[in-house]
User: Fold these one by one.
Assistant:
Number 1:
Amino acid sequence: MSWMITRSKFLRQVALGLGAALMVAACGGDEQAETPTGTAGDAAPAGGVLRVGTEPAFPPFESQGAGGELEGFDIDLMQAIGEQANLEVEFESLPFDGLIPALQAGSVDAAISAMTITEERAQTISFSRPYFVAGLAIAVQEGTADVAGLDDLEGKRIAVQIGTTGASKAAEISGAQITTFDSAPLALQELANGNVDAVINDAPVTLDAIASGNIQGLEVVGELLTEEYYGIALPQNSPNVEVINSALAELIANGTYAEIYQKWFDAEPPELPESAF
Ligand code: GLN
């Protein structure tokens, strides 16, 4: 049992590319036979555990099924990346605004959570290549006549999810009264209850909440406010950036990415750029 813990800790370090440095410390006597092999600087470690943070209240990207199991586009994609890169993915549920601190503290190795690649975030963490094209949209109660775009939200009550690009966009609107929530469904519910005038949130998520009937009486108005790319987030300069990027490139090339996209969005995926900026 104690061997299991040591081994799993060791494998985790291998996933982080620190295998060579730790081998001396972690391997004693007859455990050597179990040591995974890998070359220093190898883009695909021979095996290991990748702890991946996610905030599972953002369907169709990540949510919890009836039995509490994680499901969604991001979950399937991350599992496929793990299989491709020979890494065992272990998900950990965290609040969205806790994901970057967890990466910085090293308590998770990566995060997949419909996270937009932004210049600001890229100063403190690293991102994989873009894996999804999204954008922000305004939601209002059905039949709202006076909101057609961002300018119409001046002085209005807006609900957003804390720490998101939607929250940053709302902060730019003059005179707006902003209420923040821990999750997007809570912000949308506040709008459905009539306590705010609008929600600014990722379009695919708001549209899914409406289409699935999870939230009733809302509609999306106007054009997308932004074009945003989602990326898998990693600690700054993590060796796993390259591991994940190669796996992702392979899944895009071999059709697995398109299959997962079809499953969750019932459509052909768009072309993805290799970099967000
Ligand atoms: N894409 C948005 C962001 O990165 C929202 C992500 C989320 O709430 N999971 O801020």
Number 2:
Amino acid sequence: MSSILHLSNLLARKEISSVELTKKYLSAINNINPSINAYISVTEEMALLQAQKADDMRKQLKGDAPLLLGIPMALKDNLAVRGFQTTCCSKTLENFKSTYTATAVQKLFNNGAILLGKTNMDEFAMGSYSNTGIFGATFNPYDTAKSAGGSSGGSAAAVSSKIAPYTLGTDTGGSARQPASFCGVVGYKPTYGTVSRYGAVALASSFDQISPIASTVKDCAIVYDTIKGFDINDMTTIKQNYAPCLDKINGNVKGVKIGIATKMFENCSKDVVDSVYRAIETYRGLGAEIVDITIPTIELALPIYYIIGCAEISSNFGRYDGIRYGYKTNKSYKDIDDMISKTRSEAFGDDVKRRIMLGIYFLSKNNFNEYYLKAIQLRNELTSDFENVFKQCDLIISPTTPTTALAFDFNPDNVVDKYKADICVVIANVCGLPAISLPCGTDSNGLPVGMQLIGPKNSDSRVLNTAFAFENTANLKLNPTLGGVTYDI
Ligand code: GLN
């Protein structure tokens, strides 16, 4: 794969220019994207302009260049870039152009990143298979009959098929980690509040986090180090000293206590369980201590996520009313309520409507105490249970998802079954914890298996270092059937 570190070395050694590199990616996108539908738009003109600027800047630089200088990337289409469309793959925002750039994206630009385009996703980031948006499904680069996962499926598939060195996704309930796991790449959800959400289209604001997706753990650390920090435009960002994580990655996990909660392995396929247990043995071999843990309230994570998530969605989505921005019905209407109702009925997909209605139900006067308030109280309880568990161990290991990539005909009659697949990933969002998904093997069909590491708040560098320790030792050589730009060493 072409990691950021590797590309950055090539650029520094002048073995390639940023314009040449960008052209290679643009041509690979042309060749490969039609088979996987990872990109929904390509920003060629902007990419070449930025690449030229990066080359010019490199010539003038005296000291070391930022690691991201001149390296292309792609963004999930719920991240704002001034003057470009941000559709969230919804009819609602089909023609919407952003008037400002997301803070995290601006930080990448300030460090010389090149925008190749915007990537596919589930409508408004609700979903797990990247098949509910208006641009059609994203297909898995390992097997195009399978889903790339979701909701950041386009971002993960683009990295996996090597038509983007790295991307930004968002992770509200696993949307960066789950597709990363399906596509055999690394997805990193940082501690809540360490990356500004300004310019990320809100889904459930107390869970949303912009999250890097890349081919290696160190690449995720580089992107995270670049985008993190306090932002005056996001009052939930934490004011603290943000030391670079990259410097702390040395692969040493001697004495690190890794916790296993057997509950998190229930309902997982045998191939998934076996791969994760093999990874656990690798950690033991590296001198980590494996401890059994129990979190009695763990099963509450999913209902808490869906109740609070839907409640926040119903409130956030009040803005899509056909007046402020976005789609407005072409039909005639009696009054403003009729107009709003027609607008929303026409422009939102089923899952969006379902979650808004559920959210309104949970927040309504008669149900507020029983659902929303209870979920908030239990969220606090779960968070403190995890704080206690982190007195017994430094990190928790689990599968990322119960299965490897699923075929599109996977369509559980009961929508709750679909939601249940999020069981291991939502914990980190509910409790605001850092969590990473990285490949740990393949199943009997050669599809990647992802494992997850979760750490306590602000243990981002430990999570990244522990993930690196496995990646570095296992040295898995996963290879998707479809592949774009590679500079293998
Ligand atoms: N599968 C999760 C859901 O549907 C993913 C949401 C997310 O992280 N954006 O809610």
Number 3:
Amino acid sequence: MKQTTQAADLMAAVKEAHNQGHSIGLVPTMGALHEGHISLIERAIKENDLVVVSLFVNPIQFNNKEDLEKYPRTLEADLALIASLPGSEKVTAFAPTVEEMYPDGEPKETYRFGPVEEVMEGPRRPGHFSGVAVVVRRLFDLSQPTRAYFGEKDYQQIAVIRALLEQIKYPIELVPCPIVRADDGLALSSRNMRLSPEARAIAPTINATLEQAAEMAEYEEVDDVKEWVLDTLASFHEVNPQPNGLRFEPEYFEIVDARTLQPIADWNEAGDLGAVGCIAVWLDGVRLIDIVKF
Ligand code: PAF
């Protein structure tokens, strides 16, 4: 594995790969790597000659200062983990400073993606997807990848990146990768590190509820499934009393067309990719997201 904090080093590695006709896989991350990231890196190693793993906590995609400050930073452990993977000699790990990433100061450009960003995370995190698009485009420019790998836990982010690629017309293959879960079903996330042991113990209820919702979808209407999921999580602490006032506070649960991300009112409205349920839930001061495919 090679590692650098310098855009110029990365560009030199990319130039050399292009000169040799090599394919390049990009795995953008904000570090605090877990098995979910590792699955993306392993797939990228399998499918490409050079793999660029970026590790950069992108300040302009955080609309909440506290969330940015609390975001886990574990660079040394992340680099050791990547270096331990079979095939890691193909990897260039790029961990720039904010100044290296944004040498002209905070970027002025903004992106709009229309309906795909006007639901769920979009209105609740103003500027978030534009901030993601700015950094991802910069990473595309620096690493000129053949393929870019993103996890499906951030389902809406994938739709936004698809829209970004349509806007900027870069010939990059977008590779969505399945969620990796802990043995008890909790979707792996860097934010899980911030859960207390008591919260971590009940957090798998989110996935368990979504799995039950998928079964209900066989015979219940969309609105009834939505209401059941929200009620089940919101009333969990009443049925199962928790220490320290611990409770689930669902922010939203939407059942949407898996391509357009527009809410559906009837299962028949879902198009070629089917329907997907997307949830954001607060637990123990941590915002967790997850999805279920119907
Ligand atoms: O999904 C993430 O970790 C981030 O949004 C990304 C894609 C690395 C951009 O900062």
